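pipeline/complex-builder :: batch 7 item 3
reading input block
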Amino acid sequence: MLERPLAPALRPFDAVGGWTIAVVDSLGRFGTFFAEALAALVTPPFKIRAFVDRIHFIGYNSLLIIFLTGAFTGMVLGLQIYLTLVRFGSEAFLGPAVALSLIRELGPVLAALMVTGRAGSALTAELGIMRITEQIDALTVMALSPMRYLAAPSILAGLVTFPLMTALFDVVGIFGGYLVGVKLLGLSEGTYFGEMQTFVGIDDIMVGFWKSLSFGVIVTWVCTYKGFNVGHGAEGVARATTQAVVLSSVLILVWDYFMGSVLQ
Amino acid sequence: MIKVEGLTKSFGPQKVLRELSLDVATGTITIVIGRSGGGKSVFLKHLIGLFRPDAGRIMVDGVDISRLRGRDLDEIRRTYGVVFQGGALFDSMSCFDNVAFPLREKVRTPPDELAKRVEAALAQVGLEGVGAKYPAEISGGMRKRVAIARALVTEPQIVFFDEPTTGLDPVLVNTIHHLILDLHRRFRFTAVVVSHEIPEIFEIADTVAMLHEGRIVEVGPPAAIQGSTNPVVQKFIKGEPDTGS
Ligand SMILES: Nc1ncnc2c1ncn2[C@@H]1O[C@H](COP(=O)(O)OP(=O)(O)O)[C@@H](O)[C@H]1O
Ligand SMILES: [Mg+2]
């Protein structure tokens, strides 16, 4: 392929054009990947064992970090919100304030970020190693779809585990707030939980639920895609893992804003 | 019968295969030799449908597999066994499960028959009793043999070996060559083997093909290749260093 060299004035257009094509191309492949995974998800045979294994990989392995970050987030919220509310003499609303921040916003987002760091990165690295050591090719030539065996179970497990991890984060966080607000700062237990019951509705819980559900899809989709499409060698796996975590985290925050403005 | 015609493949600006043509007769062992990085693995990956050619045809029993997709390609692949360069065993499974995997997933064998067949396949490659071990716990040579067992357990009609002996000691090299020959005599599969083991590999070859600069430059029975007057072939099989041309 011989091409005539471009006039210097046209080069920026060439660069922008090339860049645009590359972006559209990779977006297209990213989308096709998801469509293929979905197709594998809704057509038998279903890989139940792979699915259970992925729940363990994504969910169970993230329990400790969710527990720790949930507890400390709740304690920080308990302290900071108490110190603010007490200025207005309305510390009675500590319970609902902690619960609402966690359930609507911090629970889904922080749990998703933590699971991304703990399990999403491991997912990309594992699939990336399977790619560079030709294990994914081996599946393909056995006429067994890697989408069905590797991608679909991970995405489905994300759908199940993210809401559960978020629920755990919320519950542990609310108890963290309770520890600080009630045990440390002397608010009455009845006020903390009573006002929470009054002010937190099922709508709030559903906002958190939909967020966590969509984060589950976003994170597993990004992380499996990056794992399937690593470059060469160990360096390629390292780069893909970093990209997967960064991209997942950014998408979580962007999508959170979007969901927050749609689900009032 | 595998008939490759005018196979061409580039990665970006790099031309790896240039109008490569090769015939592989059914039931024979064909060895592909050539320089490291010369495109032997890329060629093999075209034969198993992992890469699509830029141009050319790959006829397997009269069907151009480079035009097949999805289910139709999988139909052909069911008759294949592939031993990848690094073995490509599944890290997350024991050796037994690795060998059992294609049987379980592809042919749905009942459990007692499955265990028998897997043990037999492992015994064939001289690895009775290592089934419970994981790939990370065994040596490189054993891993290659497990990979061979996994490739053959479904009794494929065509088996592809990508450097089955690279990095092994001379005793193991000969063991694996004789294993391939032995299994070939027993199962009568067609074999395409990429190898660097010269001259040992000539002992088991029916046909040797030399890949050089993206083409098959010489093909024939081992004796003809060893007696070839083509300087590229002579230099390669004698292992002479490049003198810069
Ligand atoms: N997926 C790929 N993308 C880009 N280049 C590749 C790819 N696979 C192989 N190549 C290039 O093709 C050439 C031939 O590689 P290969 O077939 O692995 O050589 P070998 O004969 O040692 O098996 C190498 O230069 C390699 O970098
Ligand atoms: Mg190779």
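note: Residues 32-262 of chain A form one domain.
queue -> next item
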